[in-house]
Design brief:
Chain A is α+β, with helices and mostly antiparallel strands and 482 residues long. Chain A folds into three domains: 295 residues, no CATH class; 113 residues, no CATH class; 58 residues, Orthogonal Bundle (Arc Repressor Mutant, subunit A), CATH 1.10.10.410. Chain A is 39% helix and 20% strand. In chain A, strand 13 and strand 14 form a beta hairpin. The mean pLDDT of chain A is 92. With 496 residues, chain B is of the alpha/beta class. Chain B has a domain of 316 residues: Amidase signature (AS) enzymes, CATH 3.90.1300.10. Helices cover 40% and strands 13% of the residues of chain B. Chain B contains 16 helices and eleven strands. Chain B starts with 9 loop residues before the first helix and ends with a helix. The chains are: A alpha+beta (482), B alpha/beta (496). Chains A and B meet through loops of A and helix 9 of B.
Chain lengths: 482, 496
């Protein structure tokens, strides 16, 4: 895609995902977010002298699961390495990570932008420990009189997923990220709470003249934590690089940082200042050997992934769009599937889930997992509509009532006397009264004005407070007027 | 208690305790008195835990009074090198950097010795961060060799060797990364075991070089050594490099019989730099073993000459990373500065001594981009070749034998001006750490009044075989019973 002035952008991403294991990667401390400063710590994650790491096997399980969901090869032999650099949030002044033998090798995922499908390659994914957090007394490190370090996050397991430089536009980047996060959520390896920093993005961007094969010089912007930051950062960076190239200058290979407030990227360090991480194999941990049986055991725990779910829903009669909306988030998709067990008309169910249910949840800022209307109860409501106990119109007020009172549909219908009037005798009496009161309409109808019947039906529904069975009313009315 | 009791071995003291001939409190008090008498001259201890030790002893005595059965180390006073963490007790690693560091946790060996009922007398001097061969690199004190106060005790576990040699402790624990248990044991005339890598947990041992470090006992005789190994060896889930092996009762190997055992003498360990008198002393030890029925022949470990450079690349590379955590942020020494980077720099400039800095710089260089392949990676390949040398030798031999060190103890200052000369004296010990195999140093005679040590090397987890040969040698020689004259003089002074 041509982004500006005949340049094509090339983008690759590194995504750091916190794995939602209960305990940290190398010790037994909780991974729970928040908590009073330095309360989720022990000698191991504080890097105290003599303390040693022990690999949490659950982290390996999660990494294998994510790798399989992202179509990656799972390495039979992988190891940990030390990445050495000094920073106060790093309790040992090295990060235990994986360098040349990561747990996940080549993989990838398919994205779709404006109907075009495209495969985005994944180079690798590796396990590592998260660092702590600096807490500054002022706005930034340079304007603060003092800073403290909170090591609660130190040692929380991360999976770093590195993509190939396969993306050529911002929509492609966003589609990749959305798909990636969706898969990680579906596999439940991460809660993907972006607002808590559980997913962080490093964006590598370069420009090259359209038609050029050689890659341009790239910049890496680190530590973005929302899709909108990624989008804005890339818009800025692409425009900046285009300006530099237009002016006949060269883009400098460097690491940049995103200033969210000002909406600009800034130089963090140049290539010359780049860290020499002095990687070497972690001598405190033994190499990780993953036999194929282990991989297969994890493969069996893989849930149906979003792509497969969408296809299944389309087979059940949903449009591609509806299937996409339902499967966007795992929670909604799980809700839908749970309701589907009790009510078979997928199309009708989708309308209610995407319509009234979503509207009620949104207006009450409620997560679907916490919905006061369970999937079974929503299904029940749809069943009594189909049986003719209530009309679709009445059902709309019943679902409101279900949401606010947490009662089931049958109870509400009974308590409020909302059941449809399907008794012919009762309806005939009402019809007679309405016809007597509206002779003009009766005449119009008989004179061939079909529309007049709509008015008469409306009057009957009004007289029954909407409870008359509309199909039966139509039928009886036509017989009367024939 | 009788004046001579303090010279007794752990197993002898155990008998005295079990038969109520002495109490643990008496025994502990005797050691404390002796420490007070000798320390002005020896300076083996960085910290003496008088009250804590007496309280622990009182507890053991209560158990004895109640008729409880004592296990073999129960009530025995001992001491530990100051790089093993002791909860609530300052653990300095011989460095200014940890001058105020009080660990909130125990090393696994500390827990195991506590569970065995031993009495911790105190923490022992060492070269800073275990880097050195003379204990001269300690930030705190110069530990002297009890055989001659003008001489170094060896290192880095100098305090641990001296405390045992001068009867300031029933036994001690040291750590050995390139010879740091065996060389001081040889210099001070005691028994020192460097176990197989992975046999003893490293949890709570302040790391120098993680892939080489191993904790082991220093004792008055071989039996004591086996008894301490019984207490400290075995798998530990807190140390991923600890091996889940079936731990034997090491005392089962203590038989006075080596008939038919095959002993190899690697010729490369007798190269240039070896003191001819040391070679002669070891030769006479070899003759003793031949007389006892061992089949001795020469063998070759062809890559030995590359062991020193490989060791000083791997050990320093790991050290450069292991010691990065000492930055003043979380614990230990902190220098004041304007900003974080300044604090890091000043803390490390002021907190580390010259040898530690030298090794951090060496190791940082060896790992640097562009040099990694030429140094670190090549050193790892050499390490593999050295391992293979040993594998091949052990196809033919039950144990290998060499002098523990090329010379007896040297004088203070003799080598400290020339780090390279100091490094080269490790030639007989570092290959063992690179290969991860066990080796023991036992007293094997004297050269000009100073002890020399014989080193026995074995297959991985063949500590038992080493104990068997060492025990047989000990049963047929008297070197281990000889005591430094200065300690006898002071002992006499103390008893007046």
């Amino acid at each position: 895609m041509v982004v500006a002035n005949n340049y094509e952008m090339v983008c690759g991403l590194e995504v750091h995902v916190e794995l939602q294991t209960k305990t940290k990667i190398f010790c037994g401390c909780t991974t729970e977010f928040g908590g009073e400063q330095n309360t989720h710590v022990c000698p191991v994650c504080l890097g105290m002298p003599g303390a040693l790491p022990v690999l949490n096997r659950e982290v390996v399980n999660y990494a294998i699961k994510a790798g399989l969901a992202l179509n990656c090869e799972i390495a039979e032999f992988s190891k940990f390495d030390r990445k050495n650099y000094f920073y106060p949030d790093l309790s040992k002044n090295y990060q235990t990570s994986q360098f040349d033998l990561p747990i996940c090798g080549k993989g990838g995922l398919e994205i779709e932008v404006e109907g075009e499908k495209k495969w985005i390659g994944i180079t690798r994914a590796h396990m590592e420990e998260d660092a702590g957090k600096l807490v500054h007394s002022g706005e930034t490190i340079s304007t603060s009189n003092e800073s403290s370090v909170d090591y609660n996050r130190a040692g929380v397991p991360l999976l770093e997923i590195v993509s190939e430089p396969d993306m050529r536009s911002i929509p492609e980047v966003l589609a990749y990220l959305e798909k990636l996060v969706q898969i990680l959520e579906y596999t439940e390896v991460s809660d993907c709470r972006l607002e808590q920093g559980s997913v962080r993005f490093d964006v590598n961007v370069s420009l090259r003249p359209v038609g050029e094969i050689a890659l341009g010089t790239r910049t890496e912007t680190k530590n973005l934590n929302s899709f909108s930051s990624v989008r804005r950062c890339m818009e800025y960076e692409v425009a900046r690089q285009a300006r530099v190239l237009d002016a006949g200058d060269k883009v400098i290979q460097e690491t940049r940082t995103w200033d969210e407030g000002r909406g600009v990227t800034l130089t963090l360090r140049s290539k010359e200042e780049a860290h020499d991480y002095r990687y070497f194999p972690e001598p405190d941990l033994t190499p990780l050997v993953i036999d194929r049986e282990w991989v297969e055991r994890i493969r069996k725990t893989l849930p149906e992934l979003p792509g497969a779910r969408r296809a299944r829903l389309q087979e059940l009669g949903l449009s591609a769009y509806d299937a996409g909306v339902i499967t966007q988030a795992k929670a909604l998709s799980d809700y839908f599937d749970a309701a589907l067990i009790h009510y078979g008309d997928a199309k009708a169910l989708a309308n209610w889930v995407m319509g009234d249910l979503t509207r009620l949840l949104n207006s009450n800022q409620c997560q679907v997992a916490d919905s006061p209307i369970s999937p079974e109860r929503l299904a029940e409501l749809l069943v009594i509509i189909d049986k003719g106990t209530i009309s679709g119109k009445i059902a709309k007020s019943v679902i409101e009532e279900m949401y606010s009172t947490s009662k089931d549909a049958q109870t509400i219908v009974k308590e409020k006397g909302l059941a449809q009037i399907s008794d012919e005798g009762a309806l005939l009496g009402i019809i007679d009264n309405v016809l007597a009161a509206n002779p003009q309409s009766v005449e119009d109808y008989r004179a061939g004005k079909d529309r007049a019947i709509g008015f008469l039906v409306g009057q009957i529904m009004k007289a029954t407070k909407g409870q008359a069975n509309p199909g039966l009313v139509n039928q009886l009315l036509k017989e009367k007027l024939a | 208690m009788a004046t001579g009791d303090i010279e007794k071995s752990v197993s002898e003291l155990h008998e005295l305790l079990a038969h109520k001939d002495i109490s643990s409190t008496e025994l502990t008090q005797t050691y404390i008195d002796r420490i007070h008498n000798l320390e002005p001259d020896l300076q083996a201890y960085l910290m003496v835990l008088e009250d804590q030790a007496l309280a622990q002893a009182a507890e053991v005595d209560r158990k004895i009074a109640q008729g409880g059965v004592l296990s073999s180390l129960e009530g025995i006073p001992m001491a530990m090198k100051d790089n093993m963490c002791t909860e609530g007790v300052r653990t300095s690693c011989g460095s200014k950097m940890l001058v105020n560091f009080i660990p909130p946790y125990n090393a696994t060996v500390t827990n195991r010795l506590q569970a065995a009922g031993t009495i911790l007398l105190g923490k022992l001097n060492m070269d800073e961060f275990a880097m050195g061969s003379s204990t001269e690199n300690s930030y705190f004190a110069k530990t002297r060799n009890p055989w001659d106060l003008e001489y170094v005790p060896g290192g880095s576990s100098g305090g641990a060797a001296v405390a045992v040699a001068a009867d300031e402790a029933g036994f001690s624990l040291g750590s050995d990364t390139g010879g740091s248990i065996r060389q001081p044991a040889a210099f001070c005339g005691v028994v020192g075991m460097k176990p197989t890598y992975g046999a003893v947990s490293r949890y709570g041992l302040i790391a120098y070089a993680s892939s080489l470090d191993q904790i082991g006992p220093l004792t008055k005789n071989v039996r004591d050594n086996a008894l301490v190994m019984n207490a400290i060896a075995g798998h530990d889930p807190l140390d991923s490099t600890s091996v889940p092996f079936e731990k034997p009762d090491y005392t089962k190997f203590l038989v006075n019989d080596i008939k038919g055992l095959k002993i190899g003498i690697p010729r490369e360990y007798y190269g240039e730099g070896i003191d001819p008198e040391v070679a002669k002393g070891i030769q006479s030890g070899i003759q003793t073993l031949i007389d006892l029925g061992a089949e001795v022949s020469e063998c070759s470990l062809p890559h030995t000459e590359y062991a020193i450079p490989a060791y000083y690349l791997i050990a320093t590379a790991e050290a450069s990373s292991n010691l990065a955590r000492y930055d003043g942020v979380r614990y230990g020494y902190r220098a004041e500065s304007e900003d974080v980077l300044g604090m890091f720099k000043s803390t490390r400039s002021e907190g580390f001594g010259p040898e530690v800095k030298r090794r951090i710089m060496l190791g940082t260089y060896a790992l640097s981009s562009g040099y990694y392949d030429a140094y670190y990676l090549k050193a790892q390949k050499v390490r593999t070749l050295i391992k293979q040398d040993f594998d091949r030798a052990f196809e033919k031999f039950d144990v290998l034998l060499s002098p523990t060190a090329p010379t007896p103890a040297f004088k203070f200052g003799e080598k400290s001006a020339n780090p390279l000369a100091m490094y080269l004296s490790d030639i007989t010990t570092v290959p063992i750490n690179l290969a991860g195999i066990p080796a023991i140093s036992i007293p094997a005679g004297f050269v000009k009044g100073l002890p020399i040590g014989m080193q026995l090397m074995g297959k991985p987890f063949a500590e038992g075989m080493l104990y068997r040969v060492a025990y047989t040698f000990e049963q047929n020689t008297n070197y281990h019973t000889l005591k430094p004259s200065m300690s006898r003089e002071v002992l006499a002074r103390g008893s007046r």
